[in-house]
Design a protein that fits this description.
Blueprint: E1 2-7, H1 12-22, E2 28-35, H2 39-49, E3 53-56, H3 62-71, E4 77-80, H4 82-90, E5 96-99, H5 107-115, E6 119-122, H6 125-142, E7 145-148, H7 151-159, E8 174-181, H8 199-203, H9 212-220, H10 222-235, E9 242-246, E10 252-258, E11 263-267, H11 273-281, H12 312-323, H13 325-343, H14 349-362, H15 371-392
Parallel strand pairs: 1-2, 1-5, 2-3, 3-4, 5-6, 6-7, 8-9
Antiparallel strand pairs: 8-10, 10-11
Nicotinamide-adenine-dinucleotide binds near residues 14 and 101.
């Protein structure tokens, strides 16, 4: 029996995780579930899987949540605030933590799980983008195992040899890691129409059903830029080790190319339950509920290169990757502010990249040697991003 905490249980990854876990209640027991403020969904989930603890990060919902839990006669302990998120992440009753909070808010509890030497199933790419070197060093120091949930990184992990040593591509005869991306909903949209793109259009991803923030990031391809940085830290890669390949069908989830000319790809339906089941049960395989690929239905199988005019955010992220850690932390924070402003109708779709670029241009590189410095850098970037938005309007 593995005992699990699911951070971000009410989100898209959280719900998919519960779907897989419920298929295997002989293998997984849920210790704690967490959410930001959606206490209704969280308490229903807790009843469904018999969770012992729930945590709501947003303390302002405390009274309503406690009243609902009492009226449901639930045998669950309710906690509130960030300290409680940390407590259910590093509790010694917990073996595995699914890190599926969206954005920088995931850093503190995810880092706590790493520092407690847990098996960490990492969906929260922003935590790694913000703090890469510290995060990996802490995992090594504390004996944490990090298993990638992001479909591309899970695919790369599956395509690497078992003998792969962190950062040593040559020893495994690897020439390139090929990070694939669909290009999002605007792969073929006339660039002249980009200013008028609405949040609803940008959230309608052609292949994947995801939370709002990552859906916008997929439409701008900032997501692929964050994934580029994520891949560097997860596998110890250099910038030149990774090529980004557009593959609109999302059937291949990424590839590893070897010096002898072989390319190993991981394929499957675009359904996050596959990487979730893979990481939950690794190194064994369990059923995920995902339908097998039907190769008779796969008509097109195409590849191309993403262009900078269509995806300026991707190229900003590649620039930040070359600049170093503080630039990655800064761009990630600015992007969260700008995506939220776009979703709220305050700025246009193309303003996201415009404001992100302003913040990155103004950034002065500094070294981040503690998590406190990472959080300070994130806060500063948020303030610069807010003023960039104000200047626009
Ligand atoms: P989502 O918006 O659907 O869910 C986010 C979860 O985080 C919710 O449970 C929410 O309550 C919680 N949360 C939000 N703000 C919080 C805060 N301030 N404090 C505590 N909890 C908070 O997001 P998602 O699509 O499930 O994505 C989660 C993470 O997984 C993201 O980092 C995303 O990049 C990554 N990811 C998602 C997918 C996908 O298919 N959805 C794929 C790959 C990676
Ligand atoms: Mg991904």
């Amino acid at each position: 029996m593995q005992t699990l905490t699911i951070l971000g249980a009410t989100g898209s990854i959280g719900k998919n995780t519960l779907d897989v876990v419920k298929r295997h209640n002989d293998k997984y027991r849920v210790y704690a579930l967490t959410a930001n403020s959606d206490y209704e969904t969280l308490l229903l989930q807790a009843r469904d899987v018999n969770a012992q603890h729930v945590v709501l990060a947003d303390v302002s919902v405390q009274n309503e949540a406690l009243a609902l839990a009492a009226s449901m006669e639930l045998d669950v302990q309710c906690h509130f605030g960030v300290d409680a998120l940390v407590k259910v992440s590093n509790d010694n009753k917990v073996d595995t933590v699914m890190a599926a909070i969206v954005g920088a808010a995931g850093l503190i509890p995810t880092f706590a799980a790493v520092a407690a030497g847990k098996r960490v199933l990492l969906a929260n790419k922003e935590a790694l983008v913000m703090s890469g070197e510290l995060f990996i060093a802490k995992a090594n120091e504390c004996g944490a195992t990090i298993l990638p949930i992001d479909s591309e990184h899970n695919a790369i992990f599956q395509c690497l040899p078992h003998s792969f040593k962190y950062g040593d591509l040559a020893a495994s005869g690897i020439s390139k890691v090929l990070l694939t991306g669909s290009g999002g909903p605007f792969l073929e949209t006339d660039l002249a129409l980009f200013d008028a793109i609405t949040p609803a259009q940008a959230c309608a991803h052609p292949n994947w059903d995801m939370g709002q923030k990552i859906s916008i990031d997929s439409a701008t391809m900032m997501n692929k830029g964050l994934e580029f940085i994520e891949a560097r830290w997860l596998f110890g890669l250099d910038n030149d080790d990774i090529d980004i390949v557009l593959h609109p069908q999302s059937t291949i989830h990424s590839m590893v190319q070897y010096v002898d000319g072989s390319v190993i790809a991981q394929m499957g339906a675009p359904d996050m339950r596959t990487p979730i089941a893979h990481a939950l049960a690794y190194p064994v395989r369990i059923k995920s509920g995902v339908n097998p690929l039907d190769f008779n239905q796969l008509r097109d199988f195409t590849f191309s290169t993403p262009c900078p005019e269509r995806y300026p955010n991707l190229y900003l992220a590649l620039r930040a990757a070359r600049m170093g850690q503080s630039a990655c932390t800064t761009l990630n924070a600015a992007n969260e502010i700008n995506v939220a402003a776009f979703l709220a109708g305050h700025i246009s779709f193309t303003d996201i990249a415009r404001c992100n670029a302003q913040v990155l241009d103004a950034h002065e590189i500094s070294s981040l040697t503690t998590i406190e410095q990472v959080i300070q850098c994130d806060q500063n970037a948020r303030e610069v991003a807010q003023s960039a938005i104000l200047e626009l309007s």
